[in-house]
Predict the structure.
Amino acid sequence: MIEFWRYQLQPVASLNAKTGDGLCEGALIRVGGGHGCVHPWTSLGDRPLSEQLHLLAIGKPTALGERALQCCAIDAAARAEKRSLFRGLKVPRSHVTVTEVDALAVADLASIRAAGFDCVKIKLGADAERGACQINALADRWRSSNPPVRIRLDFNGTLNPDGLRRFSQRLRSHTSDLIDFVEDPFPYEPLLWQQLQLETGLRFALDRNSERFAADPAFPVRVWKPACSPPPISSSSERLVITSCMDHAIGQLFAAYEASVFPGEVDTCGLLTHPVFCEDPFFRQLRIEDARLVPPPGPGLGFGAMLAVLPWKALT
């Protein structure tokens, strides 16, 4: 039997160029004493939550549903053994996720450094010129940092090739030096991606649907979301960044667990997405130390007492 509980998350600000700042809805599921998270992003192409739950109920889950069921099985086994999934593991370091670049200031660099971070991921939109001005201004404020803070940019596929060219042309040389990679600048086209990287000198990362493609020089950085697909085959020719799906704390912890047990080399991850949402009772139990997510205590993914009292309903 599958049980579920719907939840809502309130973003602190607009999350990305395709998603506003309205409530984000997902569901926790419970199977055999284990828990998982289904958090679709319809703005990025996922099926709506009601459809996700229906497909789970009839035994035809989407990739999101299938991964949530796998999370349930992993969590249930650990809870049965009264063992934390994170026992003996070290969660990889993560970048800071920033959704409002204009709000960043020199003072933020000091606090980011003090928290142990050396990398910031910034969400940008379809206005290439404005985005370049924002990143140039940020680089001007941060250029004296030693060692420099790396900047990762995420356009969520909102640009086109000409927009990416305009963005690149407006970057100052010291700005380009700080950019680690550009994630999903525009929809993936292997030959065009490879050409634009040669033209601009920027490194591209593929996130959405990256599991469909083998290692490819058109995207030297692969972004893997454990909530969306099984572990990729590790390749020495690419860097792997593991991130959460900007979902419930249960989903965030599942991503952290998968990052911790991944057998290959893992780059600085994106497992600290809870600060982009207003605090809730689950997020309140998460801590950050030295740019790493600190899981809550208890068996499995934690939160035992809090999960037990949720108003679960049978999924029919």
Observations:
- Residues 96-294 form a domain with the TIM Barrel fold (CATH 3.20.20.120).
- The two ends are 9 Å apart (CA to CA).
- The longest strand covers residues 24-31.
